[in-house]
Specification:
With 108 residues, this protein is α+β, with helices and mostly antiparallel strands. Helix content is 26%, strand content 33%. It has a five-stranded mixed beta sheet.
Length: 108
């Protein structure tokens, strides 16, 4: 079992990776620096969005990014607000990319 990277460090590395690709991203909500969960919202710049959260593949036990919700951006924002009400330590990162690039597969 590998050690988990502290949430604040993971977020900083993710933002840097996005910046290097010219993809705008912002911290919408700052969570716990050590153990806060991370939610990534991908705004597709056409009025729609997707939100992803970390989960586990039950077959392999690997940590994977799972789609939480997709659809009209106000609906995605409402779902994120609900998640934050359950978990005040949750980080929320907003990525803006019309091409749908989120680079999450590169950030295991």
């Amino acid at each position: 079992m590998s050690a988990r990277l502290a949430s604040g460090l993971w977020v900083a590395a993710y933002l840097k990776r996005l910046q290097m690709q010219g993809i705008p991203a912002y911290v919408i909500a700052r969570g716990d620096d050590v153990a806060g969960a991370v939610l990534v919202k991908l705004a597709l710049m056409d009025g729609t969005a997707r939100a992803f959260q970390r989960g586990y593949d039950l077959q392999s036990g690997a940590r994977v990014w799972q789609l939480l919700i997709e659809g009209p951006e106000p609906d995605v924002d409402a779902a994120i607000t609900r998640q934050r009400s359950f978990d005040p330590d949750l980080w929320v990162i907003e990525v803006e990319d019309a091409r749908g690039r989120d680079l999450l597969s590169e950030m295991e």
